[in-house]
Amino acid sequence: MNELPVGDKAASRRVNHWVDPSFIDLPEGSISLSGRRKDRPVLCSKAELKRPRKRKGETSNCHLLKESAQRGQDEPWVDRYSPCSQAELAVHKRKIEEVETWIKVHTSISKGGILLLTGPSGCGKTATVQVLSLELGLRIQEWTNPTNLEPYSNSQCELRVSNFSCSSQLSQFQEFLLRANKYNCLKMAGDGGTTDMKLILVEDFPNQFYRQPGSLHDILRRFVKTSRCPLVFIVSDSLSGDSSSRFLFPKEIQEELDISSISFNPVAPTTMLKVLTCISTLEAKKSCGRMRVPEQALLEMLCSGSSGDIRSAINSLQFSSLADTLLEQGLWRTKKDRPVMSKARVVSRSNQRKKKSKQPKEHEEEQAIGGKDASLFLFRALGKILHCKRGIYEDAEVSEGAPEAGLPSHLSHHYREPLLVDPELVVERSHMSGEFFSLYLHQNYLDFFSEVEDVHRASEYLSDADLLTSDWMSRDTMGNYGCSVATRGLLHSNSQQVYVGFRPLHKPNWWLVNKKHRENCLAAQSLFRSFCLTPISLQTELLPYLAKLTNPMSSQAQITFIQDVGQMVLRRFPGRLKLETLTDKEPGKLERDSEEEEKEESHCGVEEVLPDSQPQPVTNQVLLMDENLIIEEYDSD
Ligand SMILES: Nc1ncnc2c1ncn2[C@@H]1O[C@H](COP(=O)(O)OP(=O)(O)OP(=O)(O)O)[C@@H](O)[C@H]1O
């Protein structure tokens, strides 16, 4: 595998002249928005694809100018303006310090160790590691998934199919870690006096790990025993619900292997704006008048449209520099071109108090090109509805007369100040179905209301929303309407708009009840299979009946289950279930439809999937042959 001594800037500069630019594989003149090549050569260092680094003592602007002058016109700006020092990084100082401290400790004091960097895509995790390695004089040895499996004759897991031999990605990864950890980098001509200190970086994971995370854990267990240099994993969060970091590195493994974890946040809009302004100014200077510095409004729009992804923002800026062409084609809208949404501008109360004339944050602009799919963590999405933010008409004339005047006097109590959020957009960006979103609202809304009349009205709206989706035939179509009724109903009912401050949010009670229900279905089907009844019939018809009998034909497991499920009226409930708190970065879990679940259950081997919380059958054999059971006395009293 190739590696590049990042420490030696001169060498790196030389190498970069003959290395392909990031988008060499695209037709001339076209620019990719991704900013990164995924089909890199086998096991090559990502550092090879990066631009040369800055020399000490050069100021950043001067450096940027020189660099940009040397580069071809088509070079992506993300590559051209990639940061070379901590000061240039658009990452929070504290995060940089945390990573720096960890690297220092694990390269000097305790050699080795594993660090996990998480955070949304494009927030500068990789850039931070690269900058710090450069500053600390570390070489980066990076694993990249091989796209073609090369012959690897020494490998243990070798596949030999008619003279063709190749090893699995997994065994190559294992070997890479072993060698990277064991051997120093080769000294190359031009390396000078670079140190042997290095850092292993893994951002691409062999696919096998997503199927069997256990195989990764086994490799890591072996790695930590002999670890000599730090190993950094970078895992990007996804808002669509599949959290790779939690799947690949569950809490138990982090504790067992003493893996440190640092979570990055999206790039702050102000920092992003500074970077974009700097880049556009430099590019405008360089273009000798051909390109103009974009309006502040356009830059702000790019920032808000990128959802904290600096790569996406810079790519969009580069596109917007082609504005003349795009504008001609009508593909790019500037703020001026956008239709006026309303006659009077609406500002939030807090903004008004601060006497800021800025557009409120909540009015996120839609971007025609390059806008990243703006996602919201569920916690924030719920907050936007529950905190019920409203604005006032900025234009005094309008605020005095128009809105209330629009309502007849007997409906004047329904007047509300305009909303600062678009409820349907909030739900869409939460990546959760309307029904589940309403469920979360239902669980949490009480804490945000101050008047009992408002609660009464809100509960009516929630019931209406529920009714809209009660019929399974029309549920798919009506789901969104139901959610509109729930969200808008809650917003409208909350007439007082009292500031409640921070309130913890909880996962719906329904969640736990549904889980218990599914476990019971599974257990009922497993324990009373010979009755050939559906899980529901078993629990609602057969088990209550068996519970009344003094001498049912049951095993101990069956008796326990009958006592648990079939005797509801006699049971004492322990009170309310303990609710799970919803954390701020948690994606909303989408439970599968219970009908689907039931179907699935009937297809799979029940004995394999019987939940731990249920009494386990003695053996399957015993259950299938009921007549052989030892019948115990069962006292229903
Ligand atoms: N000031 C800056 N700070 C951070 N990155 C910058 C800056 N200017 C330009 N960039 C570029 O933005 C990109 C940031 O992407 P980076 O690979 O660091 O993100 P990431 O958090 O690792 O996400 P992913 O996992 O998707 O790669 C890099 O290409 C970097 O060169």
From TrEMBL:
<dbReference type="InterPro" id="IPR018324">
    <property type="entry name" value="Rad17/Rad24_fun/met"/>
</dbReference>
<keyword id="KW-0067">ATP-binding</keyword>
<feature type="region of interest" description="Disordered">
    <location>
        <begin position="339"/>
        <end position="368"/>
    </location>
</feature>
<comment type="similarity">
    <text>Belongs to the rad17/RAD24 family.</text>
</comment>
<dbReference type="InterPro" id="IPR027417">
    <property type="entry name" value="P-loop_NTPase"/>
</dbReference>
<keyword id="KW-0131">Cell cycle</keyword>
<protein>
    <submittedName>
        <fullName>Cell cycle checkpoint protein RAD17</fullName>
    </submittedName>
</protein>
<keyword id="KW-0227">DNA damage</keyword>
<dbReference type="GO" id="GO:0000077">
    <property type="term" value="P:DNA damage checkpoint signaling"/>
</dbReference>
<keyword id="KW-0539">Nucleus</keyword>
<dbReference type="GO" id="GO:0003682">
    <property type="term" value="F:chromatin binding"/>
</dbReference>
<dbReference type="GO" id="GO:0031389">
    <property type="term" value="C:Rad17 RFC-like complex"/>
</dbReference>
<dbReference type="InterPro" id="IPR004582">
    <property type="entry name" value="Checkpoint_prot_Rad17_Rad24"/>
</dbReference>
<dbReference type="GO" id="GO:0033314">
    <property type="term" value="P:mitotic DNA replication checkpoint signaling"/>
</dbReference>
<feature type="region of interest" description="Disordered">
    <location>
        <begin position="585"/>
        <end position="618"/>
    </location>
</feature>
<dbReference type="GO" id="GO:0005524">
    <property type="term" value="F:ATP binding"/>
</dbReference>
<keyword id="KW-0547">Nucleotide-binding</keyword>
<dbReference type="GO" id="GO:0006281">
    <property type="term" value="P:DNA repair"/>
</dbReference>
<dbReference type="Pfam" id="PF03215">
    <property type="entry name" value="Rad17"/>
</dbReference>
<dbReference type="GO" id="GO:0005634">
    <property type="term" value="C:nucleus"/>
</dbReference>
<dbReference type="GO" id="GO:0003689">
    <property type="term" value="F:DNA clamp loader activity"/>
</dbReference>
